[in-house]
Each structure stands twice: as C-alpha cells, then as structure tokens.
Amino acid sequence: MNMDATSSISARAATISDHGHYAAMLPELGVDDPILEPARWSAELMPGTLLFEENGVVVGYAWIVPMGDVAYVRHVVVAKNARGRGVGRFIMREIARRMRAAGCTDWVLNVKVDNVPAIRLYSSIGFEKEYDSASMRLAWDVVEHLPSEAGYSARLIERREDELVERAFNLLKNRIANVRLQNGWILMRLEDPMNPDDYGIGFTCFQPQFPGCFPFASPDQTSLACCSMQLARMPCQRSTTSTSSWKMMRVSNDSS
What we know:
Blueprint: E1 9-13, H1 19-25, H2 38-44, E2 49-54, E3 57-67, E4 70-78, H3 87-101, E5 106-112, H4 116-124, E6 128-137, H5 140-143, E7 153-156, H6 162-168, H7 175-180, E8 186-191, E9 203-206, E10 213-217, H8 221-232, E11 242-251
C-alpha cells in the first residue's frame, strides 16, 4: 500500500465525546463483549484509546494498555467503509511509534485464527505466534455438571501474590497489577490446602456485572472444571455455550 493513500489520516487521543465511535465500531471485532456505558468506557478504555480520522471522519480506533515494557494491544478496529486502503497498517505503525516513545520494547495482541487479513498484516510487521487460546461461553447448567472439585478451594489473590501467579501462568508482567488499577475487578486463584504455595492450579479475573472471565487459566481439565464450578457460585450474568479460537501474537525487542 502506497503511503500516500494514508497521508490524510491522523491520530488523536480519545475524549468522552468519542464513546459513540467506540460503540459503533466495537461490533466489527466479532466478539460478544457488551458495549460499555459511557462512564465505564471513559474510566477504563478511554485513557488508552486512539481515534484515527481521515478528513475529519473517524476511520478506526485502537485501545492499547502499556504494562511496563510491554504494550498490550487490546482493540484494533477499522471502519467498514475504510478497509482495503492501508488504514490498519497505519494504525499499527502509529501504535508502534507511540509505544516505543513510551519505553515499550515488546507488544502483544490476540487475534481470531480465522481473521486471515489481520494475521497477514500482523505477521508482515514482525508479529509471531506466542501461543493458542480459546474463548468459551458456557451455560451455568453445563458448569454444574463438570467433574468434582478435587479438594481445591478458590480465594482472592493477595497483592503479595501477584508476581507469583503471573510467573506460574506465564502472564504478561504487571498483568495483574494493571487489573487492580480498575474498579470492580475480582482476582481469584485456586488453592490446594495440602500445598498452598502452588500458584499454578487455576487463576482468573472478572467483573460480576460482565459476562465473562479473562484470563481464565489452568494447566489441566480437573483444575479447569474446579475453577468453573467455584466461579459458578459468583453473581455473574448467565450465558449460552459457544467457542472461538485465538492466537496470541508478539513482537519482541522492537526498536524500529
């Protein structure tokens, strides 16, 4: 794509008045996440959101969360009528420029495995697959029929345990600390009473008002089932069963 094709595009920080643009473009991600109401969006997403305009018209947005030296690119959305003109590449280059200036040397993102154009774009600018993951949506009656809890219990994660849990599940550094900065999130881990120092049994974070947990990590099916059953006792919204597959992609030691 010729750079002249995007020469009229500019980037700016989001303001509260941009909630409507976010709400209009979020469905383009193809996920089931609900659209956040303005107050919550302005508190949680707006500080890390960039809007991209062409001749005064919004053609895309990005939401980025810097976590130490790693930039977590949470959303990249190009408006339907702006696709095929290099807008996505422009957005990624602008993210890279700003994150390098902020001291980030690595950046990561999640992308659906069937989003071939996006994977092609990310690969062309240096992203490589780090691991595969899955998004699962279960009805509570399914959770209630999962295997027994194997003697584990679920409890809140203490601040002193943040780094231990991150290391146990190979989470991004400062991932848990970043969640703690936001109001209303609950951080939980599974604990084996016979081995309370094993931090790698199960972990998740969620908001009771939000229909989902992310991340939701466990090394085996028994622990995963236990984690699900413990969460079933929390006052979360109900949901139906569905799955989707994702890739975590990463650029390491980025400097140019």
